[in-house]
Amino acid sequence: MAPAAQIVNGRKTFIPLENNPDVLAHLCENLGVAPGLSFHDVVATSPEMLEWIPRPIHALVLLADWPIYDAARTEIAKTIPEYKGSGPEEPVIWMKQTIGHACGLMALLHCLYNYRDAEYVTPETELDQLLKQAITLGPAERADLLYNSKFLENAHMEAASRGSSRAPSPAEDNHHHFVGFVQKDGQVWELNGGMNGPLLRGSLEDGDLLSEKGLALTVKDYLDAAAKGGNGEMSIVAVAGYNAQLL
């Protein structure tokens, strides 16, 4: 049985998620995601270190220590206008995070709901029903929908408690933040429920997110911040579809 979330400072708060392929894959199982997705650690971004990852990659999940995240995104975050969109005509579906320590779940949801037009969201599942409801709602109502979902809480909490390291209490401080990147319709989006809205990073018609241009539009700012700061941890997981293969 999954442990329950806790109310911390008046807000529902989860156990932080680990950014590792096994945990993300298990969370996908809990969410009823269709078979075919696979998750791969990006240990380094040099070409020789990327050879073993199947391609193309159209989604990435990044976890960074707060000093890295702060250096890479705090100033950019101030330039993003408050998102007020809704409806199926929006270029991406973006969801505001209001659950404490749920940034890993939010990063994965952003990837699942936008990856190849939600191809891996199994029809008629609870995950699909949430998507259909969320699309019709404005940002505040959409955030409330996720906040009140017992389905998401159970799926997250069970997966988070199965990581390779000790699962912390929801009440413990969390000094990391997750970000999702998705290539959709030739555009690269940074999707982060802690920002004011989605961040369009640029165009990428060909190739994938592990190409030189793909990396420049996604994780390069964070890698540069980590290199400049000289400390802090960061991890990247590549999300591959059923059609991905080794080059």
Automatic annotation (TrEMBL):
GO terms for molecular function: cysteine-type deubiquitinase activity. It is an enzyme of class 3 (hydrolase). GO terms for biological process: protein deubiquitination; ubiquitin-dependent protein catabolic process. This is Ubiquitin carboxyl-terminal hydrolase. Pfam families: Peptidase_C12. GO terms for cellular component: cytoplasm. Belongs to the peptidase C12 family. Its EC number is 3.4.19.12. Residues 13-241 form the UCH catalytic domain. Keywords: Hydrolase, Protease, Thiol protease, Ubl conjugation pathway. It catalyses: Thiol-dependent hydrolysis of ester, thioester, amide, peptide and isopeptide bonds formed by the C-terminal Gly of ubiquitin (a 76-residue protein attached to proteins as an intracellular targeting signal). CDD domains: Peptidase_C12_UCH_L1_L3. Coiled coil: none annotated.
